[in-house]
Amino acid sequence: MSEPAPNHGNAIRVGVDDKSPLVQAALTHLLTEDPRFELVSVYADGESLLQAADLSDMQVAITGWIISPGDGKYILDQLRSRADAPRIVIYTGAEGE
């Protein structure tokens, strides 16, 4: 897990979840270079993202479709019932998805 970034006022608070260190690094770079965003966490598994969504004021979560445990649908199903769940962006690079 990465340390929370300093507060940037009205910046959108974003959490990143991807199993690939390369994708984590790329998204971290993009988000930290843009003052509209505040990167609050980086994880490599869905359970950590779900825990962070409970414990932080994350507004948007970015995750890959292929993430353990389960997949992007698992993440969506877990967040669906939470009143204060972050908005979610799910992407994939997998063939046939």
Q: What is the level-2 CATH architecture name?
A: 3-Layer(aba) Sandwich
Supply Rg. Answer: 13 Å
Structural class: alpha/beta
Number of helices: 3
Which stretches are low in confidence, meaning pLDDT under 50 for 5 or more residues running?
A: none
Q: Span from first to last CA?
A: 28 Å
SSE sequence, one letter per element: EHEHEHE
Report the average pLDDT across residues. Answer: 87
**Proportion in β-strands:** 15-25%
What summary fits the major beta sheet? 4 strands, parallel
Task: Please name the CATH topology.
Answer: Rossmann fold
Q: Please bin the fraction of helical residues.
A: 25-40%
Number of strand elements: 4
Strand order of the largest sheet: 2-1-3-4
The CATH class name reads Alpha Beta
Number of domains: 1
Structure write-up:
By secondary structure, the protein is of the alpha/beta class. It has a single domain (12-91), classed as Rossmann fold. Helices cover 33% and strands 24% of the residues. It has a four-stranded parallel sheet with strand order 2-1-3-4, sandwiched between helices. The radius of gyration is 13 Å and the shape is globular.
Which descriptors would you attach to this protein?
97 residues, alpha/beta, Rossmann fold, four-stranded parallel β-sheet, 3 helices, 4 strands, globular
Topology:
Layout: E1 12-17, H1 21-33, E2 37-43, H2 46-55, E3 60-64, H3 72-80, E4 87-91
Parallel strand pairs: 1-2, 1-3, 3-4
